[in-house]
Amino acid sequence: MKLGTGPFRDRVVGVLFIALLLGSAIGLTWLMRQTYIVYKLRRGVGDTWFLAADGKRWFRLDEHRQDVPLTDIPKHLRDAFVAVEDHRFYSHLGVDPIALGRAIIRNVSTGSAQGASTLTQQLARTLFLSNQKTYGRKIREAVLALNIDSQLTKDQILELYLNRIYLSAGVYGVETMSRHLFGRPSKTLSLAEAALIAGLARAPSALSPWSNLDGAIERSHVVLTRMREEKFITEDQERAARATRIRIRPYPGAVDPRGGYAKETLRQQFRDRFGGDHPPDWEVRTTFIPELQEAAERAVAEGLRRFGEPELQAALVAVDPETGNILALVGGRDFRQSQFNRATRSRRQPGSAFKPFLFAAALENGYSPVSMLSGLTNIKPQGPDEWAPRNASGETPDAVTIREAVIESNNRAATALQQRMGSRPILRLASDVGMRDLPDVPSLSLGSGVVSPLELTAAFAAFPNGGYSVRPRAITRVINGDGIAALVNDIDRHRVISEQSAFQMVSMLSDVLDRGTASAARSWGVRFAAGGKTGTTNDFKDAWFVGFTSSVVVGVWVGFDQPKTIARDAYGSRYALPIWSDFMRRTAARRPPQPFDVPAGLQDVELCAVSYQRPVEGCSVYVEYLKSGDEAPGRLCTLHQGSIKQRVRRTIEGVFSGLGKKLKGIFR
To answer: So what's the architecture of 295-471+493-587 in CATH?
Structure first.
């Protein structure tokens, strides 16, 4: 179709001209900005900093990197990288047109993606871009490489590259890798050792010498071959290097283990999103509070030390219940000995620590804290009981209220309730609060599924925050070197239970600390408003306590990496609760706990704290909170004597109650 010669053609031409101008302006602005950024490389390279929740600098992405001048890097190490990664490095202008043309032909003919990056392009990607495989990124990479080559000398480029290249296991730069692998500076490396390090650049994760030494050595032989082909070494030197037996040191772990699990979690999240490279002058804003992190590490270390078992592990997670912000995280007893993060990666059965979600689902489906669960003597006991019998004869009560079941962690009651309700509402609530893929089995209510400490702790936030599920987050925002947000991680929360049901759970879980399985916490300094739940699995393989105040939710797990019995009677109250209590006591000043607010829509009723019936004289009482539709107990307490008037009234109530049961039987 022809445009013609009228106003329509003029408008089209005008639009195209404006679009061309805008595109040119945007491209020119970007090019000028990149030129200035490259110019700043003459003064050295910045680094990516992780900021604590208060906005202060906390740690660098690559804390262990040691920059050295090119003169301190041996010639055979420099030659090794040039030979295997970019043999025309000293002759091209930042982009190798020969390699680029060959890669394009290969890509078109085979349909595969073949790289042709020079050392300069790799440096541009490492310093300024992500690892995202797109044509747009490759174009930007090429432009930056040309810019770098025009402003810096080849020696300056090579020095930056060798100090910044990622070489596996969180290690950047040849000097740091040399010291980690061989315990010596890079200037002392043999030819074989230099070839090993140079070979890692192609696939740092797959060829890490600490996990795949054979693969790394095989790749080093490729490097030696390329060095001989490029006339950097002779055949005799290649043969001797191939025959050299390489010995490496064990992975050293963190130089400074403080906060090791938390810092590595943040680094890994950053790498997962932006690749293994480390752009300069970026800021990663995190949710962590260093003072709470230190308190968490101290609580775990001192708690485990009391048990005298060197293989016993623990994990602790602290989360803000309103936002899901991770405030502190400890993934094991010693980051130097094991970098496996049990707080995020270990998945274990929660035992009775899962029961609150059973009871919360019940509250959402017509039950109240004083609903009676009966027929318990007909339920086969499952799992370890966490509560001694209340009566001298040791008999199992045939009926308990839901509040009693929570306080006592009554397994029979939990099983009976799941049988009445079915598992669907329990699984739905568990999934809504972040515990997915749990098994639909009769023992679901007793915590037979598997969860991570982070998942379980974040799930508990729905109780103190008024019924909302929150997604745990460690990073809130990432700001690139231009001051632009490269990542914005907003709060993610949605309602999963009513505010009234959430408060009823808070009330019952507070009783767990006041007069239930976790009452020892009060003598250990937790004297403020708090609630929580113990958890113990079969054969005492896992010990848990997850609890909260108005300002923080904290979960603690204790156990062995290979599940086995911790000890006889290794209940959550004995192993996890002391660590939790220590941390909460240390945290109270930094995150002051407040009394839990009673929401509208609840009726407060005074009841006997033993019988859960209407009180008489002699009863110890407590305040029960009932939702609209919850049935309040009508009978007077039958466990305490009461006044004469109350005893007469109770007798009358008993007569009518018995008569009602007989009539019900007749007409059944």
So the answer is: 3-Layer(aba) Sandwich (3.40)
